[in-house]
Amino acid sequence: MRVGPPLRFLAPALLLGYGAAAGLCWRCEQALFPRAADLRSQPAGQDGAAGRVRASQRLGQTADSFFSEYFFQNFNRDRLQVRYQIPKKSYAAYCGGFWYTQAGLDALDQWHERARQSAFKLAVSTRKTQHQLDSAVANLKAEFERKRRDYLVSKGFRLRAGNVVEADVPAIARRSVPDLKPVALALDSMAARNSYDSETLVGAAAAMVQTALNYQVPASVEGGQHTGGILPPAMSMVRGWGDCDTKTALLAAILSNWSGVRIVGIAVPEHYLMAIQRLPAQGEAFVEWQGQRYVLIEPAGPAWLPPGQVGADTMPLLQAGEGFRIEPFANSPG
Question: Residue 77 in contact with residue 109, Cβ under 8 Å?
Answer without folding.
Answer: no
